[in-house]
């Protein structure tokens, strides 16, 4: 049987039980399935319409095959022509569906003419949904469930074999799917076809879903030392508990690949018996890390981990796809197996939505029931193993908020990059401030920042402590509290406003004091999440707060900062350099016209 008839059968109400061998037989079967007299005027018109649809399905499938075979070698002009031709074809198909609505509505109304005091029956939802196909932005689909076509189609949907036939918004929602496609395109770029994303109701829900899918009882998990405090608590108080999953946690304090190689060898030696019994070893990284913003050699660590067949999970929230795109490494061995983001932070940017996402290779994220790909059974995929049963899905309104925020991500990150460089170098000019940021030249993490981050740009999250100033607690607290309103005293990151907090008392308060110190966190450590504010106004407030609360006890303290003229010159220099890096990094006109 030809590929054309197999494609056409996807449109049949008897797609799994049909014995038809031609599109004509498929059209006849369709009339029989719904009890339509093929000899009537209605039957003849319906037969012709169904026949053309089956033929169109085969033709469109052939268009897709031709596209796959020729896209790489097309000129830009040909790509533009083909894109617009297919766009118009989509409008034509939608127009046909819209034309169908008036006779569809008429039949529906004739079935439900209520009498007396009974209320009129509600309209059928398909009537209003067709024109939404022309919306210039993703439609916010507020529904719990969906109308299904026929028994065999919904049966396929429950088996995971009908991607366009959604069942329940706890599992799939068109708005959330639009967001999932958008983040995969941003992160994976030319490799987007290899990856799939599932959206969760928060970043922590995404991390929990990922860990729940990967970890099994008694496994060993290597974790980079500086991670978000909530993840530390999740690992320490849940996954590592003996009465839960008894995960063996091993904390990696380094950043370089060679440090990781030595550490991994030690972990394997310590847990040799456990691993010999079939337990697995996995790796969880956060880069850039919270709270200091340091980057790890993710490609090098992935390469080493994959040599031992260990899965690597990466929280890349602070990088965003603007600063780093680890899934676009040409060498697949250097890519993490899972990439997680808290959309709540920079990707959305508004501070009004909590959301998260996990991206992974297709075969690890979803397979139809009964399938097995690359040694992964369908039941082990994230969709069936976690997403399908836990219900931490992202609703359509939040998905829409994140999609809107993504439109301005690049420009917001450019502003934050400029502000971070200026503010960190301003702070580093004072001898009593220790700036924990790879912006500072000579910092141990600066080399990796230059190597791995786009243009060598810094993470907009960093810490600074005043341990060297020997301030008493009350003086420090008064100074810190006076930083409002220029600096927002909030506990999140990634918004437009600049946020400052003391990790020891907030985001990392779950850690014991010894663990805090091991992570470089002290009582006077301030975590700064740079926003898009006017950085010179931030600096002015910082200096004035020091004058107000520190100078009376430490005369001349505020005079140790760089001069106002030097700050102006620094800002101008950094802004011009960063803008030039950004605006000259795209393809030239000559390339675009090739």
TrEMBL record:
Pfam families: Cys_Met_Meta_PP (PF01053). Its cofactor is pyridoxal 5'-phosphate. Gene3D superfamilies: Aspartate Aminotransferase, domain 1, Type I PLP-dependent aspartate aminotransferase-like (Major domain). GO terms for molecular function: transferase activity. The keyword Transferase applies. Keywords: Pyridoxal phosphate, Transferase. Residues 1-21 are annotated as: Disordered. It comes from the Bacteria. Belongs to the trans-sulfuration enzymes family. This is PLP-dependent transferase. The lineage of its organism: Bacteria, Pseudomonadati, Pseudomonadota, Gammaproteobacteria, Alteromonadales.
């Amino acid at each position: 049987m030809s590929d054309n008839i197999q494609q056409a059968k996807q449109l049949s109400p008897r797609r799994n039980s049909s014995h038809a061998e031609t599109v004509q037989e498929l059209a006849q079967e369709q009339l029989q399935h719904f009890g339509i007299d093929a000899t009537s005027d209605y039957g003849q018109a319906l037969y012709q319409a169904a026949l053309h649809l089956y033929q169109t399905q085969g033709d469109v499938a052939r268009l897709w095959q031709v596209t796959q075979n020729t896209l790489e070698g097309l000129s830009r002009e040909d790509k533009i022509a083909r894109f617009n031709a297919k766009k118009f074809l989509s409008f034509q198909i939608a127009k046909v569906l819209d034309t169908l609505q008036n006779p569809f509505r008429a039949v529906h109304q004739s079935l439900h003419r209520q009498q007396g005091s009974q209320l009129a029956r509600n309209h059928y939802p398909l009537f209003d949904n067709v024109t939404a196909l022309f919306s210039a932005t993703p439609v916010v689909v507020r529904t719990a469930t969906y109308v299904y076509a026929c028994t065999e189609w919904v049966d396929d949907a429950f088996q995971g074999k009908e991607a366009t036939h959604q069942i329940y918004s706890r599992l799939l929602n068109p708005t959330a799917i639009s967001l999932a496609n958008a983040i995969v395109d941003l992160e994976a770029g030319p490799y987007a076809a290899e990856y799939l994303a599932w959206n969760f109701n928060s970043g922590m829900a995404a991390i929990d879903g990922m860990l729940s899918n990967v970890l099994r009882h008694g496994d060993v998990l290597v974790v980079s030392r500086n991670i978000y405090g909530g993840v530390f608590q999740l690992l320490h108080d849940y996954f590592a508990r003996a009465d839960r999953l008894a995960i063996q946690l091993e904390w990696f304090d380094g950043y370089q690949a060679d440090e990781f190689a030595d550490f991994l060898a030690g972990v394997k030696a310590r847990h040799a018996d456990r691993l010999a019994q079939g337990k697995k070893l996995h790796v969880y990284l956060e880069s850039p890390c919270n709270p200091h913003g340091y980057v790890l050699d993710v490609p090098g660590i992935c390469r080493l981990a994959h040599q031992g067949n260990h899965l690597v999970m990466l929280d890349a929230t602070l990088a965003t796809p603007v600063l780093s795109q680890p899934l676009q490494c040409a060498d697949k061995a250097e890519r993490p197996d899972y990439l997680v983001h808290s959309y709540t932070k920079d990707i959305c940017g508004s501070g009004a939505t909590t959301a998260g996402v996990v991206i992974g290779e297709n075969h690890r994220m979803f397979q139809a029931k009964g399938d097995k790909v690359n040694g992964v059974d369908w039941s082990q995929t994230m969709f069936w193993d976690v997403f399908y049963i836990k219900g931490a899905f992202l609703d359509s309104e939040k998905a829409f908020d994140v999609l809107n925020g993504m439109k301005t991500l690049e420009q917001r990150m450019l502003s934050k990059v400029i502000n971070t460089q200026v503010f960190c170098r301003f702070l580093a000019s004072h001898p009593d401030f220790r700036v924990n940021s790879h912006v500072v030249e000579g910092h141990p993490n600066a080399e990796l920042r230059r190597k791995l981050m786009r243009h060598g740009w810094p993470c907009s999250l960093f810490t600074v402590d005043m341990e060297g100033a020997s301030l008493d607690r009350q003086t420090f607290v008064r100074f810190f509290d006076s930083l409002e309103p220029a600096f927002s005293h909030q506990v999140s990151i990634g918004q437009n406003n600049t946020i400052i907090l003391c990790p020891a008392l907030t985001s990392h308060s779950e850690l014991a004091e010894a663990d805090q110190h091991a992570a470089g966190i002290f009582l006077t450590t301030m975590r700064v999440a740079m926003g898009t504010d006017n950085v010179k106004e931030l600096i002015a407030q910082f200096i004035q707060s020091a004058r107000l609360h520190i100078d009376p006890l430490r005369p001349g303290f505020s005079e140790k900062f760089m001069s106002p003229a030097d700050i102006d010159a620094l800002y101008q220099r950094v802004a011009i350099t960063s803008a030039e890096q950004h605006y000259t990094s795209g393809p030239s006109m000559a390339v675009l016209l090739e």
